[in-house]
Amino acid sequence: MTNPKTVLMIEDSPASVKWIQTHLERMHYKVVIAESGFQGLKKARDLKPDLILMDIMLPDLDGHKLCRMIKFDKELKHIPVAMFTSRDTEEDAEMAKKMGANAFILKSTRIEIILNILEQLLEKKQKPGS
Fold first, then answer.
1. CATH number for the domain including 70?
2. What is the mean pLDDT of the chain?
3. The pTM is what?
4. How many structural domains compose the chain?
5. What pLDDT digit, counting tens, does each position of 101-130 carry?
6. Which of 72, 75, 89, 107 has the largest CB neighbor count within 10 A?
7. Does a structural domain hold residue 83?
């Protein structure tokens, strides 16, 4: 059996964590949780996960700034980042794109669509030259 893909979820809402973690683990992903931006950055550096799923509104560090820090880190910039948020504004979607996020997912999105987006990001990461 191959090693499961690791998803680092940076999210401070226990309900969101439990909901996504349950579905990802059913799909055989290994899920690591960080409850704040700085904790997430440390775990990203330590673990080098296959994908990072993060909220915009975090207790200590704005998700947009955190995404930018990840994308400017030569050890982490190749990791796909999906912003996972309840903030449904064009400004947030544009800012996520500017900061280097690979996807912008609303928390209200159906779970099948969320899982599909994450799988697409992981597939792109595996392809040579991407």
1. 3.40.50.2300
2. 92
3. 0.92
4. 1
5. 999 999 888 999 999 999 999 988 765 444
6. 107
7. yes
